[in-house]
Amino acid sequence: MTEVKKVECIRCKASHPETLYSGDDRLCVYCKAQIAEQGPLPTVPEPEPTKEETLEEKARAELALRFLTRKRLLPFVERFNPDYSAGWVHKDICKRLEEFSRDVTEKKSPRLMLFMPPRHGKSTLASVAFPAWHLGRNPEHEFISCSYSGSLAMGFSRKVRGLLREEGYKSAFKTRLDPHSQSAEAWLTTAGGGYVAAGVGGGITGKGAHILVIDDPVKNRDDAESSNARDSAWDWYTSTAYTRLAPGGGVLVILTRWHDDDLAGRLLKAAADNGEQWEVVNYPARAEVDEPFRKRGEALHRERYDEEALKRIEKAVGPRDWSALYQQNPVADDGEYFTRDMINYYDRDEIDHDRMRFYCAWDLAIGKNDRNDYTVGMVIGVDEQDCLYVVDVVRGRFNGFELVEQILDLYEVWKPSIIGIEKGHIEMALGPFLEKRVRERGLYEAYFKDLKTGRRDKEARARAIQGRMQQGMVFMPKDEEFTGPLVAELLRFPNGVHDDQVDALAWIGLMMTEFSTFVERVEHVPSWRDRLPGLFKGERTKSAMSA
Hints:
Elements: E1 6-8, E2 15-17, H1 29-38, H2 51-71, H3 73-80, H4 88-105, E3 111-115, H5 122-137, E4 142-147, H6 150-165, H7 167-172, E5 177-182, E6 186-189, E7 194-199, E8 209-215, H8 221-225, H9 227-241, E9 245-255, H10 263-272, E10 279-282, H11 307-326, E11 344-346, E12 357-363, E13 375-382, E14 388-396, H12 400-414, E15 418-422, H13 425-441, E16 448-451, H14 458-470, E17 474-477, H15 483-492, H16 500-513, E18 517-521, E19 539-543
Parallel strand pairs: 3-9, 3-10, 4-7, 4-8, 8-9, 11-17, 12-15, 14-17, 15-16
Antiparallel strand pairs: 1-2, 5-6, 6-7, 12-13, 13-14, 18-19
Helix pairs in contact: 2-3, 4-5, 5-6, 12-13, 14-16
């Protein structure tokens, strides 16, 4: 017979078979029964802490807070602004500014651009809290802070100086203001560092800077549209501001984009021409693709402006300013291939999807050298007048498995007659898994067509859609997340950083032209398009694609 293991009860000290125990408390069932009959034991109130203990705890908490204040930027912000509501974007900015500060201290000459919509808290962090925090850690360093006006820059200066006067600041840092130099325009620390405020274009000759901060160098649309104003800002930066940097010093540019040729645009162009390289961080008001901290379409800081608020703003400011100011994606009116007057828009509720046939094209980033390229899938609807309506766009970076699911998901939504993919990509990477998933999902009607480049490069392929846009036969949806980036890419083509959406649209244009045409009398249903000029009516040549 197997001997039963016995366990000693921690209450009665008797040894019982282990089967008389439950749980991990080592109380036998007899003791548990007695305890249950007696009811819960009376609670004994915790003794009140002594005055000495309370003071000691407060001292420890204060020392910990001082340490965090010196170590990290966000606790610094929250200490002096208890009502500050930090979202993920502000935490991300603080992290990047901390890295920037370390690089300046180590004389690594950092260059950082932060693009952010208006009224999202960028200046509070970058132009007020950051200089005060950095000077607390590096009292010998010099700041030059510039904005579109001297008065705005001096406003930042007063706020930074005010933080250095706070008792909480003095308890955390050894940095002190020089009592003999405390004007808003320029003030010093007792360690020889200091702060200079100036407007863009203002005089800063004779001043030095370990850190040059440029916060919103453009005041309004009028200044942004002025080539003279843009030239003046660039000349001031290259001949005056930049020359003030100390060896290993850093440049921090924080702005809302207004124009493709603004100061940030020229710095990026110079970087592309083997100039200084910049870390560029773009925070669009609404995510255009899935990001680490939010999904496509989600607001940047919904505690302040949620998705509905952003929709109202977008309608109020119009597509151009929305793209520039809020999505940080400014474009010129006229590109080399496409101009703004070629961009036509439509409302979703003004078209009849049931009377359209749909076609899809994919521009894949698989095998491309540039790891920053996106994969794009685009669906267009073709109506009875051969007009093209962009109805959906998928854009992102996907591995092979994710891409196959995206292709099939888009097919299930729109059921396009043809799914065009550049020849070679299916055989190269997707073929077996695509066939497998088509069978598993029962999508046997999906028709994939190889798109052949031949000798046509991207620019040559773009001609296929350019002609239709010149005739006013291509329409973009209003109030869609993908519309702004698509329009911006069209207007920048072929000089933009990305051209994946243009290429997907161009592939569809080529698909249209590769089919034979035939003459057919189209049943005409009057609609809003009748009010638009340049559209064909009655007897016309019609593409078999829209049959």
